[in-house]
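To assess whether ligand presence alters the predicted conformation, the chain was also submitted together with nicotinamide-adenine-dinucleotide. Input:
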Amino acid sequence: MATKRRPSFNSYNPVTDEVIGTYPIISKGEVADVVVHARLATAQWQGLGFSGRKRVLLAWSSLIINRIDQIADLICLETGKPLSDAKLEVSIAVSHIGWAARHAESIMRTSFRRPGLLMANMSATVERSPLGVVGVIGPWNYPLFTPAGSISYALAAGNTVVFKPSEFTPGVGMWLEEAFNEVAPFADIFTTITGFGETGRALCVSGIDKISFTGSTRTAKLVAAQCATVMVPVVLECGGKDPVIVAADADVKRAVDATMWSAMANAGQSCIGAERVYVDEKLADEFIARAIELAATIHAGASGDGNYGPATMPSQIKVIRSHIKAAIADGGTCVYGGPQSVKAPFVQPVVLIDVPEDSTAVREETFGPIIIINRVATMREAIDLSNASAYGLGANVWSKRKGKKIASQLHCGMVAINSTFSFATIPSVPFGGVKDSGSGRVHGPEGLLEYTFARTIVRTRFYLPLHFLSFKRRPQDDRLVIKLTKLLKGRLG
Ligand code: NAD
């Protein structure tokens, strides 16, 4: 009798289209099973305490960095990015794992709060507890760095984790799990499940305690809706249309260098990559000339050849081409490259200027090696245009003197002054966006606390003769409370 074959899917090399590996499509029932096992492992994982978990996580991070060649090769194969970019990604991911492991205990320390005058006989404390089992759903563009920013913080907080990597990078997801299991004291602390969107959907309703999602805004809305039906809280890290503001007193050379790298590196497939520039008109011509000069020195190609690789996801090519065409049709000018720069799977650099703000190319995430440079008369205009976006992930500001003043007026989750991408590499600061870029945070204390819940504990230290939380409350108790409230102008708490 023929045995039923398990449904599976392939992962492809985006440069050659060759099959790299075949992975199972984990079904809804199997997902639920994995989550049950992960839940059974939570007590033992929490029982290890902070120091025990720290030991495991640091052993995992050492193993990853010691095998950097192996994992970086796999990242290259699945995404097509240059080897040096893949290695940088591994190093930054490892620093996040280490930071989470070392800081979880102090971040989750019980805090003591003032009980206030009316409750002076009480002690008031807030404990932090892990949630239980956290589901992580990841994208393909930084297949190690991005999920590691959720997985390691959730594990350090005492949760077990079930990870659903992108269908474009299942190999990296499996590698991470296998590496973890080499150092894990027992099974089911961290499990990877492979598959398409359906597997991710199943994870949302599998009895999980929280979903930490990174991916497109479109999918984030589906995830949030799905999770809402079962009251599962979510962290949503979504797309962006990050602006770069260049003031008249900026170091133009550095600003151009960083902006072009931010826009083009990883083939423009970075959620925090520069997509639009608002440059003071006094500097605009120089900025544009330097951008064109730099664009001419870089090109897309296979790992070992190009400064950046292909569009990892074939369907993105259509979006990139349509944005270039829309920018031109709406009145913008291509000053470097153009529609002819799109030759799947590669997209060569494209520099567009003076693109109207209502163009799709300015409004929607392109996720390609394209930069739009628009002139502004004032920094007020630059700030307003930056904020007039459905997205609010990151931003870059270039100015010698006004950086902080401009940064504080931007409606987004992260701003880098006179640099780019830097906030993603500093583990102690939270990462995330507002508006269509998502909600909740990863990284830093805020990111770690996303995988915990607050438990308030108040305790009676001694009894007062007042009975205001009782049916025995007397008229004099009422009078006292009102008198005190008046006297202290409401500062009873
Ligand atoms: P995507 O939304 O297509 O997929 C993300 C993940 O969701 C994949 O694992 C996919 O299988 C899964 N998924 C698909 N449908 C699902 C469903 N209905 N329920 C649950 N899971 C489902 O995104 P992508 O193309 O993999 O990633 C690119 C996007 O991610 C870009 O928009 C980029 O800006 C964004 N991104 C954001 C950040 C950030 O931190 N803000 C970081 C990296 C990438």
